[in-house]
Amino acid sequence: MSQPGTAISVVKEIEKYKVKIVALQEIRWNDEGTIDINDTTILYGKYNERRQFGVGLAVCKSLVHTIKEFKVINYRIAILIVKAKLFDIIFIYVHAPTEEKSQEEKEEFYAEIEDILSRINNSKIRIILGDMNAKIGKEQFLKLTIGKYSLYETTNDNDIKLIDLVTGKGFRIMNTMLPHKDINKSTWRSPDGQYINQIDHILVNERFTNTVNDVRVYRGTDCNSDHY
After folding, report:
1. What angle separates helix 157-169 from helix 103-118, to the nearest 10 degrees?
2. Where are the alpha helices (DSSP H) in the chain?
3. pLDDT digits (tens, 9 = 90+) for 129-158
4. Sorted alphabetically, which InterPro entries does this protein's record hold (predicted)?
5. DSSP-derived pairing of the beta strands 40-44 and 196-197
6. pTM for the full model?
7. What does 50-111 look like in DSSP terms, one character per residue?
8. How far apart are CA 19 and CA 133, in angstroms?
9. CA 118, 129, 80 angle in degrees (round to 5)?
C-alpha cells in the first residue's frame, strides 16, 4: 500500500464487497495512526527498519464506535478489540515470516502470539487472521483442528508451527474446515498467474467456531496485490 493511490483502491474494493473489518499486511507506511477514506477508517502500524511489512486494519466507519482498543505490537502483529453484544471480539492481525526465514525469527513470531493469547481471557472471542505463510495439510489425526478441505496433502515447516499454536491454544483453522471449490480456497497467485497457494488463514478459538457461517476467497478484487 506504499504506492500512490493504492489505499484508495483497497478501500474501493472493501466497500464494493461490503466487508466491515479487513486485515491488512504489507502496508509499508512510515508511522502509526489512522486515516479516513470514504466510509472506511484505516488503523495502521509502521514498517520495519528496511521499510518492509507493516500491519493494520480497515474498519467500516459505522463500527468505529465499537472499537475498545487498537494496539500495534510490531511490524508483523496488531490487535483490535471490538465490543460486541455479548462478548468482546479480539482480532489478532498477523503477517508470519516466510518459509526461508530463520528459525529464530519464526520462533519469535509465534512466541509473541502465544504471549498475547496468555493475557486474554478465554471467555472472549479470539480470531487470528492474516498471511500465515503456511500450507496446511490433510493429516487425519489433525482433522478436528484443520478439517479436510485444504489444497495440500502435507504440511510445511511453517504449518507445523501453526498447528502447534492452534492445538496448544485451542483454536481451529476455519478456512480448511469448510468445503469450497479450489479457486475459492487459494489466497495467493504467482506474478505470472501460473501458481496458486493457500497461505492466508483464519483461526477461531474452539468455543466460538459454531458462530462462523462461512470462510471463502473472493477472487474479483483488484488491489494490485498478489493476494486475494
Report:
1. 20
2. 6-16, 103-118, 143-146, 157-169
3. 999 999 999 999 899 999 999 999 888 766
4. Endo/exonu/phosph_ase_sf, Endo/exonuclease/phosphatase
5. unpaired
6. 0.90
7. TS----EEEEEGGGGGGEEEEEEEETTEEEEEEE-SSSEEEEEEEEPPPTTS-HHHHHHHHH
8. 23
9. 65
